[in-house]
Predict the structure.
Amino acid sequence: MDSLDDFMQTHPPTSARPLLGLTVLVVEDSRFASEAMRLLCLRSGARIRRADSLFHANRHLKIYRPSVVIIDIGLPDGSGVDLIRDLTAGKSRVEVVLGTSGDPDGENKAIKAGADGFLAKPLSSISYFQSKILEHLPADRQPSGVRVLSYDSVFPDEVALRDDLEAAAVALEDTSDQRSLRYMTQFLGGIARGVNDTSLSNEIDALAQLQVNGHAVHNQVARIAAMVQDRIARTAII
């Protein structure tokens, strides 16, 4: 397993970089959300590793032992709740396990599964990110002295947003797989909320309601697909 003990002894956390010496594994399917996490870790002193699915997260955890794992609730090959439960139930427990989601019910799901805490999306505040991790670390992992609070925010590059939108556009071309469509509804909803795109978010909420009621979704999917293409065109001009 990858150990940070020697690194921690020679590079202790500081008030300006309170997560120095920690490795954070981010289990997140969105490139845009992952880029925000990367910037937050960079500004906080932490190293970051990323897995975009449960499969890749489990493969990673067989080799490395991160200090912190941040797990998105909605993933392409299952629920992040299952991974949270696995990482908090065993004897070789990860120090800090946090859930993350843009779903209003995400926090309840994560905490019930055993997560130490929860990060609400969209994530941009450096001080919020640092505090949510530090409050669950033991005293010897805390920076000494008074911590300098950063009121800065991070802003991911729009290239990452375009990557997410292009992946969604491809998935929306085939609505025959209901499970994939439910996942894509959740994925796109997270993107829309993450960039405060209210009009797209409202249309995705309408699609989710149609799915719950068992109604036809073809027209609504077509409407959303057109909106996604419009946003891809906008982000292409960088």
Summary: The chain has a mean pLDDT of 90. The first helix runs from residue 5 to 10. The longest strand covers residues 96-101.
